[in-house]
Amino acid sequence: MQHHRIVDGPKPKHAQLRDILRAVADEAPPGSAIPSERDLATRYRVSRITVRAAIGQLVSEGLLTRAKGRGTFTAKRRMDVQLYLESFTDDMRKRGFTPSSEVLRCAEEPPPVSAASALGLGPGEPACAVVRLRRADGVPLTVERGWYSPRVVPGLPGHDLTGSLYAIIADAYGVQLDHAEQTAWAEGADRATARLLGVREGSPLLVFRRVAGSGGRPVEDMTSWYRGDLYQVTMQLDRTVPDSGPHSAKGGTT
């Protein structure tokens, strides 16, 4: 760890130490140990309270993580998820990962009322239900549970769904998804989702519900549960005020 001096001045010492440790966390591989609170206090001639405050802020930011009885380590890097309409497969490949998908369920049956309404289906009209576990370099990242309109993509279960669904929809049906409305929220992992993602029950997840379509026709109603320890979301904001309706992010990352 490069040695920097902490000096008396307008910037609090805990903020100076936080900046030093942030630079270390940015440069070190995930899982790297940082010096103990005692060592940091001695090295930078500050109190243990100052060290604890600096580390606590970086833990809350997700840059450092504490392991009881073992020390403090640099955290796993979160993927920076941009909100635009792109397939999970293409997104992972651009990041240099090998994507894979495990189809957990695929069946044609009447969807719940919310999905039927989103897809413009009549009462009792079936849709294609698809549940998949998505991985990157073998690491489980997201569980997707979605519905697809049989009016636009009939016979979808007859295709190999272990790759990009968007590619199948484009190549086999000539349909290019060109718009989507997406809602995001945070949720604790239930037992089934936690088991699939390899995290503890109750672990934080980022959840996206996307309704996507082509040429004004609804095609997909998909909800995706992403591991909160591996993802963060970046949004471009401006001061434009929508004419009406709720604020919603366009596009997404499934």
Automatic annotation (TrEMBL):
GO BP terms in the entry: negative regulation of DNA-templated transcription
Source domain of life: Bacteria
Alphabetical list of SUPFAM superfamilies matching this protein: Chorismate lyase-like, Winged helix' DNA-binding domain
InterPro entries recorded: Bact_HTH_transcr_reg, Chorismate_lyase_/UTRA_dom_sf, Tscrpt_reg_HTH_GntR, UTRA, WH-like_DNA-bd_sf, WH_DNA-bd_sf
GO molecular function, one term: DNA binding
Keyword DNA-binding: yes
Name recorded for this polypeptide: Transcriptional regulator, GntR family
